[in-house]
Amino acid sequence: MNTPTLPADVHVLVLCADWCTQCRAFTAVADTLAGPRLRWVDIEDAGLDADELGITAFPSVAVLRPAGVLRYLGPVRADREGFLAQVAQLSRLDERAPPAALRPLLSPG
């Protein structure tokens, strides 16, 4: 079985909270995918509101394409292959625009 890869045009925001044990477990997966296309965002440090973003569990993952299309995956399990398989199924999900609160996180920097 081949390990799925992160599609080339996809950027990922891992939306987490410092107090979340599942988020800390997911850091091992995030570390294997580290790079400019994956950002770890503690929503409390970033001043984001989970309710406003529609986040009901952690870690949640915002998957974005250059056009700004947003999909949420979450909660995600702390296994690399499972995570990548979820991301690889993006074409099956409805497109949504990113919430205004996430837009500043989409620019490089």
Blueprint of the fold:
Blueprint: E1 11-16, H1 21-33, E2 38-42, H2 50-53, E3 60-64, E4 70-73, H3 80-88, H4 103-106
Organism: Hydrogenophaga crocea
Protein name: Thioredoxin
Give a nutshell description of this structure.
This protein has about 110 residues and is an alpha+beta fold. About 30% of the residues lie in helices and about 20% in strands.
Structure report:
The protein has a single domain, classed as Glutaredoxin (3-Layer(aba) Sandwich), CATH 3.40.30.10. The mean pLDDT is 76. It has a 4-stranded mixed sheet, covered by helices on one side. The longest helix has 13 residues, at 21-33. It is of the alpha+beta class and 109 residues long. It contains 4 helices and 4 strands; from the N terminus they run E-H-E-H-E-E-H-H.
CATH architecture: 3-Layer(aba) Sandwich
User: What class, by secondary structure content?
Assistant: alpha+beta
Please tell me what the overall shape is. globular
The amount of beta strand, in percent, is 15-25%
Q: Look up the CATH topology.
A: Glutaredoxin
Stretches where pLDDT is under 50 for at least 5 consecutive residues are: none
Residue-averaged pLDDT, rounded?
A: 76
User: Any idea what the radius of gyration is?
Assistant: 13 Å
Number of domains: 1
* H/E series: EHEHEEHH
As laid out across the biggest beta sheet, the strand order is: 2-1-3-4
The tally of helices reads 4
Estimated helix fraction:
25-40%
